Amino acid sequence: QLECAIRDAFVDQSQLIKAASNLIHAIQSERGASNLYVANNSEQHCHLREAMIAETGHFTLGFMRALPSPAHVERSQLSHRLLLQLAAALESLENLIVIREQINRRQLSTVEVIHRYSRIVHTLLCVVFEIADIAAEPAMARTLIALVNIMQCKELSGQERATGTGAFAGSSISAAQSRQWQHLIEAQEKTLEVFAG
Fold first, then answer.
1. pTM of the full predicted structure?
2. How far apart are the first and last CA of the chain?
3. What is the mean pLDDT of residues 74-92?
4. What span, in angstroms and rounded, lies between the C-alpha atoms of 158 and 166?
5. Which of 21, 31, 90, 160 has the smallest C-beta neighbourhood within 10 Å, fewest atoms?
6. Residue 106 phi/psi, 5° resolution?
7. Which DSSP category does 44 fall into?
8. 130 vs 82: CA distance, rounded Å
9. Residue pLDDT, tens place only, 110-151
10. Is the Cα dihedral 4, 85, 17, 152 positive or negative?
11. pLDDT, tens digit, 9 for 90 and up, residues 47-72
């Protein structure tokens, strides 16, 4: 009965992983559009950004629907750490409103835009990692660890692309941006090694 309960909980958690994955992709797209908007200091990318914000809103609702209900939490196999990660993710999603408003007011640089959106993505990745960490069966755990690492690699490549976009749109690259690029490339290689393993 316990094994059946664990597997039922995993089915629910897999829906949460799917919802988090979709939301991460939407936030990454919004980050890119926002980065272009800030870097060009013009309204040229305003419509693209608005479309990405709407998409993020759609997938945020999907993520909220996938969250366990309070009644479900009591009888499920959710760990205390997973609940803490979910709370952190929800708190970070609330910051989207503030970030968007600061971008509208031109209060953030491209580096700050990348950093703030990346923090939100990080909290969502932690949710997926925590589900992988508590997976009962070794085969499930291995598959989920591979998924987490490919998602992390995608995020690192998104940050690399965003850094490049900011540098290209701003017509210059600083030594710090160059070092950050190198770090992101090396980190991608490490996550791919784990994934391949």
1. 0.86
2. 33
3. 82
4. 12
5. 90
6. 60, 40
7. T
8. 6
9. 889 999 999 999 999 999 998 888 776 788 888 888 999 999
10. negative
11. 889 999 999 999 999 999 999 877 66
